[in-house]
Amino acid sequence: MGVLRFILGDQLTRSISSLDGLDPEADVVLMVEVAQETTYVGHHKQKIALILSAMRHFAEELRAEGLRVDYVRLDDPDNTGSFGGELARAVERWRPEAIMVTEPGEWRVLEAMQDWRELLGLPVHIRDDARFLCSRAAFARWAEGRKQYRMEFFYREMRRSTGLLMDGEEPAGGQWNFDHDNRKRLPANVHPPRRVRFEADAMTREVLDLVARRFAGHFGDLEPFGWPVTREQALEALDHFVTDALPLFGDYQDAMKTGEAFLFHALLSPALNLGLLTAQEVCAAAEAAWKAGTVPLNAAEGFIRQILGWREYVRGIYWLRMPAYAQTNALEARRNLPWFYWSGETDMNCLAQTVADTRRHAYAHHIQRLMVTGNFALLAGVEPRQLEEWYLAVYADAYDWVELPNTHGMVLFADGGLLASKPYAASGAYIDRMSDYCGGCRYDPAVKSGPKACPFNPLYWNFLLENEQRLARNPRMAMPYRTLAGMKPERRDEIRRDAQAVFERLGI
Ligand code: FAD
Ligand code: DLZ
Ligand code: SF4
User: Fold this and answer.
1) What dihedral angle (degrees, nearest 10) is formed by the CA atoms of 89, 98, 315, 177?
2) How many Cβ atoms are within 10 Å of 128's Cβ, its own excluded?
3) Residue 1 above 90 pLDDT?
4) What is the domain count for the chain?
5) 3 has which bridge partners?
C-alpha cells in the first residue's frame, strides 16, 4: 500500500495537513481509541465521550467520502492501549511505505512521535498543524528579541496580518480594544438565551454507554450530554451563538450568575479544539455579523480578541517555551490542591457553584476559571502541577497546549510574568462585584477577619505577604503593596493567622 495517514483525536478536520495529497486508492487513514489517552489524566466523563464520539463520526464521514479508514475501538480485544502500539499493529496489517501525521497539540505526544521512526522501522513525516492563524515559526519571529510577550501587541499584529476588524491601517471604530465596555454585572432583567444542545444519536449513545461502563470513577456527570460531535452540529452551534448570544457577549463577558453556567459565552472551544470548526471561520462569522449590523463592535471585537489574540498567543507561548515552561514555579507554591476541587464540597459559595457547573457540564466560563477556581489556587499557593492536572482533566476543551499557559502563566504566575504582567490576584470584593454568589454564601466579602470573613480576604493579603520579595517591585502591584506597607504589624500577624486557619480547615 501507500502511506498510512494517522489522525489524532483532536485533529478532526478534513483539511488537516496529514491528509494533504492523499491517494484514495493507495493510502489508508488510521484512527485509534487508546487507553493511554483516555487516562493520562482522569478526564471528565463528558470529555472522553465527546472525543470518542466525534472521532467515530469523523471516521464515518471519511468513509462516506470513499476513503479507506482503519478505526480501532477502545474495546477491541487486541488494542494495545497506546499510539505507538496501535501504529505498530497497523504497520503489520498494511505494510505502508511511510507514516504521515500532523504535529500533535501536546509536547508529551510530540516526544513520543520522535521515537516512532525507530519503533516502526519506516519514515514518519510530521507536518505542521496549519489550523492556526499564526504558525509556530511566525510566533517565534514575533517573539524574537522581546523581553516580555504582551498579548495586546501580538493581537494588534494579528489584526493587521489577517485584516480582521480593520479599516485600512486603522482598527475598526478607532480602537483596538473595547475591554472597558465589557465589564458589566448581569442585571436581573437580562436573561441569557436558551442554548442549542445536541441529542445523542445511536453512535453517541454507544459511546456514552462505553464511558458509563469503563470510566465510572472519573470526575463529572456523563449526562445530560449536549456537545456538538460533528462539523454540521458545530456549524449550527456557531450560527446559534452569533445570532442569540454574541450581541451581548461583550457586555457580560466577565459576569457570573448562579445557575447560569453559559451566559452569553460561545461554548465553542470543545469544537474548535477538536477541529470541527476553524478559528478563521469563527472569527469571520463574528466579523460578518458586525458588518451586517446585528452585533455591536464591542462584542465582535471582544470575541475575536479571545480567538485571534488569546488562543493563538497561548499556543505560540506553549511551543516557544516547552518543555522548560512547565517546570517553572516562580512563586514557589507548594500547597496541595484542596479536595473540594474534586468533590465540590465547600461552604465558599463561588467555588461550590463553579465546581458544580464544571461537574455538570465539563464547562465553566473564563472568569469562573480565572477569578474563582484560579484565583483561589493562586492565593492559596497551590503547587502548579496539581492545579494544571485538574484543569486538564475537568474541561471538555482541555488540551495541554491551551490549558498549560492559561493555568501556569495566566492564573498562577508560575512563569514569573512571561504571559501576564501581574498576578490576577483578587479579594472577595471582585467576586461580589461580578456575581451574585456572595448573597448565597455563609461568608461576607465585606468582612476582613473573624468567622464571617470571606476566606479570599485573608488569603489575598497573605498572598501579598508571602510573595513580598518577589512581587513588591512589580509596578503594577504598587498599589496593594502601598496599602500593605501602611498596615500595623499586628494586622499583618492577624492576616497570617486567619490565612493559616483557612489552610488548616482545608487540610493543605
Ligand atoms: P468564550 O468565552 O465565548 O470565548 C470564545 C473563544 O475564545 C473560546 O471558544 C476559545 O477558543 C477562545 N478563548 C477565550 N479565552 C481564551 C484563552 N484564555 N485561551 C485560549 N483561548 C481562549 N480554553 C481552552 O480552549 N482549553 C483549555 O484547556 C482552557 N483552559 C483554561 C484554564 C484556565 C485556568 C483559564 C483561566 C482559561 C482556560 N481556557 C481554556 C480559556 C477559556 O476559559 C476557554 O477557552 C473558554 O472558557 C471556553 O468557553 P467558550 O467557548 O464559551 O469561550
Ligand atoms: C484526549 C483524548 C482522549 C481522551 N482519547 C483519545 C483517543 O482515544 N485517541 C486519540 O487519538 N486521541 C485521544 N485524545 C486526544 C489526544 O490526547 C490528543 O490528540 C493529544 O493529546 C494531542 O493533542
Ligand atoms: Fe466566594 Fe467570599 Fe463571596 Fe463567599 S463571600 S461567595 S467565599 S467571594
Assistant:
1) -130
2) 12
3) no
4) 3
5) 98
State whether 309 and 344 are in the same domain: no
| Segment 191-248, tens digit of pLDDT | 999 999 999 999 999 999 999 999 999 999 999 999 999 999 999 999 999 999 999 9
pLDDT greater than 90 at residue 182? no
Per-residue HEC secondary structure of 209-247 comes to HHHHHHCCCCCCCCCCCCCCCCHHHHHHHHHHHHHHHHH
- In the β-sheet with 28-32, what is the strand arrangement from edge to edge? 69-72, 28-32, 3-6, 98-102, 124-127
User: Residue 178 belongs to what domain range?
Assistant: 136-198+230-321
- Note whether 295 and 167 are same-domain residues: yes
Q: Which of 103, 127, 151 is the last residue before a domain boundary?
A: 127
Helix 107-114 with 83-94: angle, nearest 10 deg: 40
List C-alpha distances in Å: 241 to 44, 264, 266, 329. Answer: 24, 8, 6, 38
Q: How far is the CA of 37 from the centre of ligand 2 (A)?
A: 5
How high is the pLDDT of residue 47? 98
In one-letter notation, the amino acid at residue 283 is C
Residue 83 and residue 160 share a domain? no
Distance 443 CA to ligand 3 centre (A): 6
CA of 431 to the centre of ligand 3 (A): 7
Q: Across residues 168-197, what is the average pLDDT?
A: 91
**Residue 223 alpha carbon to ligand 1 centre in Å:** 22
Residues within 6 Å of ligand 2 by CB: 8-10, 32-34, 37-38, 43, 48, 51, 104-106, 109, 399
Q: Does pLDDT of 181 surpass 80?
A: no
When pLDDT is averaged across residues 280-287 and rounded to a whole number, the result is 98
First to last CA, the chain: 57
Question: Taking residues 355-359, what's their average pLDDT?
Answer: 98
Q: Is the pLDDT of residue 143 over 80?
A: yes
Say if strands 166-167 and 69-72 run parallel, antiparallel, or are unpaired.
unpaired
pLDDT at 66: 97
In three-state secondary structure terms, 260 is strand
Same-domain check for residues 140 and 97: no
Q: Whose CA is nearest to atom 2 of ligand 2?
A: 37
Instruction: Look at residue 222 in the predicted model and tell me its pLDDT.
Output: 98
Sign of the torsion formed by the C-alpha atoms of 62, 63, 69 and 71 = positive
Instruction: Report if residue 355 sits inside a domain.
Output: yes
Q: What is the CATH number of the domain that holds 193?
A: 1.25.40.80
Residue in 256, 348, 447 to alter for ligand 3 test, most ligand atoms within 8 A of Cβ: 348
